[in-house]
Design a protein that fits this description.
Elements (H helix, E strand, L loop, with lengths): L1 H15 L4 H13 L10 H27 L4 E8 L6 H13 L3 E7 L3 E8 L4
Antiparallel strand pairs: 1-3, 2-3
Amino acid sequence: MIGHVLVRLVLWFLLTADFSAANIVIGLCIAFLLPRSYTAPETLREWLRSLKKILMVIPAAYQEAFEIMLHPHRHETMVKERVPAHRSPRMIFLDIFLITFTPKTIVTKHDDRGWYEVHEVRRDAS
């Protein structure tokens, strides 16, 4: 429960950028009043895989940013990526965040049948 409240507070502070006493009280009220989802907790293995992905995507994002600056990327494509089986909403959110974190890709849609629709920019038309 504390973890849910902390995540919600962090999101509240990121949205409002206000650390006044009144805003903290409002953020706490909202964090406690929002309904919680009761999904199965993720395994330690899933969190470690996600941590590995996070550590890999940060340098990849910088590399892609430099590639876009140095070489124009004029071709766009839409691709579908499969959502791993039995993903919790938190893990799906993290997947979408990691895909969107890199400059060349953004998730435009997630459907309930288990697919992400990803917009990509490419240097060549392949």
